[in-house]
Amino acid sequence: MKDSVNMTLLYDYYGQLLTDKQRECFDLYYNQDYSLAEIAAEVGISRQGVHDSIARAETMLRHMEEKLGCRCREEQLQKALAVICDAAGQLSQSDDAKTRSLAGDILRAADTIKE
Q1: C-alpha count within 13 angstroms, C-beta hemisphere, residue 65
Q2: Cα→Cα distances 19→23, 43, 48, 78, Å
Q3: How far apart are CA 98 and CA 14, in angstroms?
Q4: Residue 102, CA atoms < 13 Å, CB-side half-sphere
Q5: Domain annotation for the chain: domains and CATH numbers
Q6: Which residues form a coiled coil (predicted)?
Q7: What is the pTM of this model?
Q8: Measured between alpha carbons, how far apart are the two ends of the chain, in Å?
Q9: What does the CA dihedral 16, 22, 25, 30 come to, rounded to 10 degrees?
Q10: Residue 44 phi/psi, 5° resolution?
Q11: How many helices (H) and strands (E) does the chain have?
């Protein structure tokens, strides 16, 4: 996965754990596509300060994912739900009414988890 996409996903999970300055620099760099010089002018710190702030934010986000694994767990959950939905979809085509009914229950439960 492209590193910028990965960083943005990690930010979605753990961004609130960053300092206000790190969040602002990170958002401008990754989400608004500002250059380091543009961020420095916007925030009022040096270009090197912006670079350091973003680097610390990236390190913190990676560290939080290593320790907590929320993004990884979410990916695993989505893959497992896809398998469950696929299996229930196949079961819903059964000739047995009870099997079709149970497959419907499974699909509704999976949809609830997805929300």
Answers
A1: 20
A2: 6, 14, 17, 30
A3: 44
A4: 10
A5: 3-68 (1.10.10.10), 73-114 (no CATH)
A6: none
A7: 0.78
A8: 24
A9: -50
A10: 85, 30
A11: 6, 0
